[in-house]
Please model this.
Amino acid sequence: MPFALHLLALAVFAQGTSEFMLSGLGPDIAHDLGVSIPAAGALTSAFAIGMIVGAPLTAVLAVRWPRRPALFGFLLVFALVHVVGALTSSFPVLLGTRVVAALANAGFLAVALATAVSMVAPDAKGRATSILLGGTTLACVAGVPGGALLGQLLGWRAAFWAVALICVPAMIAVLRSVPAESGSGARGDVRAEVRALRGPRLLTVLLLGALVNAATFCTFTYLAPVATEVTGIDAARVPALLALFGLGSFAGVSAAGRLSDTYPTRVLVLGGAALLLGWVVFAFAAGNVAATLVLVLAFVQGALSFAVGSTLIAQALYAASGAPTLAGGLATAALNVGAALGPWAGGLAIGGGLGYRGVPGVSALLVALAFVVTCVARVVRRRAGGGAVDQAVLGG
Model:
């Protein structure tokens, strides 16, 4: 794999750290800027909305730009808004920086996915994708706890400065290492990419990606209270549990990178079935400390979730090989739709009387729904295409 892919992953690491680190900085931000904790929580929502809306929009703009300047520009904007966030004493300004940062993040990731697949062989899209997503999983393992630690020691603004500083070597790396291959640069190419997105195969894969990611973030969002309130694990050990989930995610992405190009159906079918079974087992075993720790569900489920999720992203790029930038933008949006849907669905279960134990059950239902969607898609495609079924869908 080209070394430039690992340098792009460094930028994805910085962006993933920024996206998730507010979970540990919210109370300090609320106290410092004189707002309520729920209001500070809106910073996370603003970022998610910016990613969902911005991914396809910025991808459309980026189709016309050479990739290296586009990557550098998005990363520069991302770094600058973190500098503004670190300096401001106004909550509305900070909220605005989160939206702009999300737009820049979405644009960068869309172009980075297109750049990554253009730098490797046509049958190595899964491995290239896994390297980029490895930056996100490492953010869960190291970046988010590191940001929280900086916030505790030096204040929340230090975490914003750290993200901006990490972007500097990534920007230098983009200028020095990313090939100077130009993007389309023509208005007609945007229309050509849009036409390449019309196939039902891509839409099915994106829907599956949203559902699997929703299942992941449904439980991950509430993993700490599930561990303390249901399992009975001491609160001091929760960071280790979260780290296990992050390490599992990295392992899953790495494994998928080696398997998803050659055996996508096996990864999706077997991995999806194991993921569903794991959430069901977690729902019933969450109250047993020994069972939870022996099964190491945080690690296993993290690995399975990201292995299946990263494979689906790669399959989206395969399904729309004629529109790599827009496909990357839509894949980014689909994952963030899932990241927003999952915690909402988990919150409904908690508020509906199921409590925290019901959260893994909701994750299981979401993965089961992905299998239902797959079965329906297969039936429709067989009737429409005389039995031809794309391999890029679960069970395909």
